[in-house]
Amino acid sequence: MLSARLSVVLLVVPLLSGNHAPPIFVGKRRSYGVRYYPEAENPATGNPTSVANHLQYCVANSVLNFTGMGLRRVGDFFVNTTYARELYLDGNDITEISETAFDSMKGLEILSVSGNRLRTDKLLWFRYHETLWRLVVDDNVVGDTTNNGNIREMLEHLPRLEHLSMRRNGITRVEIQLDKFAPILNWLDLSGNKLESFDFLVNLPRTMRNLYLQDNGCLCTINNLPSGIEHLQVSGNRIAELCNENCSEQTWLSLKGLKKLRTLTASRDGIRLVSEDAFKDVTQIERLDLSWNELRFYPKTRSLNQLKYLDLSHNQINEVMNLCDSILTSIETLNLSHNHISMIDKNFANMMYLRTLDLSNNRIAILPTLLIFNSRSLEVLLLTNNSIEDIDDLFKKNSFKELELHLEDNPFSVVQYYNFQVHLKQRDARSELTNRVSIESLGDADDDIVNTDDLDDIDDASQY
Ligand SMILES: *[C@@H]1O[C@H](CO)[C@@H](O)[C@H](O)[C@H]1NC(C)=O
Ligand SMILES: *[C@@H]1O[C@H](CO)[C@@H](O)[C@H](O)[C@H]1NC(C)=O
Ligand SMILES: *[C@@H]1O[C@H](CO)[C@@H](O)[C@H](O)[C@H]1NC(C)=O
Ligand SMILES: *[C@@H]1O[C@H](CO)[C@@H](O)[C@H](O)[C@H]1NC(C)=O
Ligand SMILES: *[C@@H]1O[C@H](CO)[C@@H](O)[C@H](O)[C@H]1NC(C)=O
C-alpha cells in the first residue's frame, strides 16, 4: 500500500517542480474521508529518502485552508494550482465566486464554502469540474430580500459529485434537476432550510443512498424517491401519513419501492397514520424512529423482520395489544415511553432479541410479571412513572435472570417480602418523602404469606 502510494508521488513530483507551495498549506490528504496530517507532526509516511522532496510530496495532495480570513470575493483562477485536493473557504464574507475560480484546480476533490454570504440562487453556480466529489455549502444565509430562496439555475454539471451538503441556507425551492447537476450523487443534505415543496426529489439520480430533509417545516408530500435510498431523515416537517400507494391524508411520505431502506427517521412530523401497507416494500429496515408524532395506535405493519430499533416514544398510543400481530422478531430496542399505554400485551414472546424495553411515562397499573420473568433476552425494562401500586409478585418467585428494572415514580409504597412488610415511602406523598424506608418484622416465618398460585398460573401460561 505504502509503496504504491510513493510511486505515484514520484511520478507527480517532477511535474510540480518549479511551482511554489501555496501560501496556506495545511497538510496532505491520505485517502477519502477527512483526515488531516498537520505538516509538523507528519511522520513523512515512511523512509524520507525514498521521497525525493518531502515538501513536494505533501504539496501534491495539499489541503488549502482559507477559513476565517475575511475573504469577500473568489476571483478568476483563485489559486492557480493543479495540485490542491481540498479547499476550505469557510467562515469568510464571500458574496461572489467567479465562474472560473476553480478552473485550474484540476484535481480538486473537496470544496467547502460554508458560513459565507452566497445568495441562495447562486449556491450551485459552478462550472464543470472533473474531480470534485464533495461540495459543502452550509450556512449561507443572506438577509437580502431580493433573494427569494429559489435555486433556479445551475451553470454546468459536476460529473463526479457524490456528496452535496446545503444545510441552513434558507432555501425555499429547488428547481434544477439534481440528476443533471450531479448524476452520481449519493449523499444529499438539505436539512434546516425552508423548503416549501419536495417535488424536486423526483429528479434525484438513482445513485442516491443518503437523503437528509429534516427541519424544513414543510407541509409536504414525499413521493417517488429513488429505490436505492438507504438512510432517510425527514423529521421536523409536516407529514401526516406513512404509506405505500393508497395514501389518504393531506400530506404523506410514500415508502413505495424503497427496498434498500435501512434507517428512517420521521420524528416531529405530526404523523397520525401509518397505513397497513406502508412498509410493504421496506423489508430491510433496521432502525425506525417515529417519536414525537400523533400516533394513537401501534402501527399495524408486517415484514419488519430486520428491525432492531423502534422508537415510538411521545405518541398517543394507548395499548400495545397488537404487538403480537407484527413481526418484530429481531427487535432489540423498543421505546414506547411517553404514551398513554395502560394495557400491555402478554405476547412479547416473538421478540427473541428484545434487550431494552422502555415503557416509562405511561399509565400501566399492573406489573407485567410475564414479561419480567419470561422474556429471555430482556436486559433493561423501564417502567418509571407509571401507576403500578403493587410489586409483590416480584418477590414470589426465585429468578436467576439478570434484569435492570426501573420502577421509580410509581405509587407503590409497601413491599411484601417473605415475612417482611417493607414500607418504602409515605402513602400519598410521592415527592419529598420517597426515600423513607422502614421495616417491620411480621414475627415468625410462615410461608402462607407468600401465595404462589398466581405465579404457577404464569408458569403454565408460558410456553417459551
Ligand atoms: C481550517 O482552519 C481552521 C482554523 O483556522 C480550523 O478550525 C479548521 O479545522 C481547519 N480545517 C481543516 C479542514 O483543516
Ligand atoms: C497559472 O500558472 C501557470 C504556471 O505556473 C501559468 O503558465 C499560467 O499562466 C497561470 N494561469 C493564470 C490564469 O494565472
Ligand atoms: C389501492 O386502492 C385501489 C382502489 O381503491 C385498490 O384497487 C388497490 O388494490 C389498493 N392498493 C393497495 C396496495 O392497497
Ligand atoms: C426513549 O425515548 C425517550 C424520549 O424520546 C428518551 O428520553 C429515552 O432515553 C428513550 N429510552 C431509551 C431506552 O432509549
Ligand atoms: C409522568 O407521566 C405523566 C403522564 O402520564 C406526565 O404528565 C408527568 O410529567 C410524568 N412525570 C415525570 C416526572 O416525568
Automatic annotation (TrEMBL):
<feature type="signal peptide">
    <location>
        <begin position="1"/>
        <end position="18"/>
    </location>
</feature>
<dbReference type="InterPro" id="IPR003591">
    <property type="entry name" value="Leu-rich_rpt_typical-subtyp"/>
</dbReference>
<keyword id="KW-0433">Leucine-rich repeat</keyword>
<dbReference type="Pfam" id="PF13855">
    <property type="entry name" value="LRR_8"/>
</dbReference>
<dbReference type="InterPro" id="IPR001611">
    <property type="entry name" value="Leu-rich_rpt"/>
</dbReference>
<dbReference type="Pfam" id="PF00560">
    <property type="entry name" value="LRR_1"/>
</dbReference>
<dbReference type="InterPro" id="IPR050333">
    <property type="entry name" value="SLRP"/>
</dbReference>
<keyword id="KW-0677">Repeat</keyword>
<keyword id="KW-0732">Signal</keyword>
<dbReference type="InterPro" id="IPR032675">
    <property type="entry name" value="LRR_dom_sf"/>
</dbReference>
<protein>
    <submittedName>
        <fullName>Uncharacterized protein</fullName>
    </submittedName>
</protein>
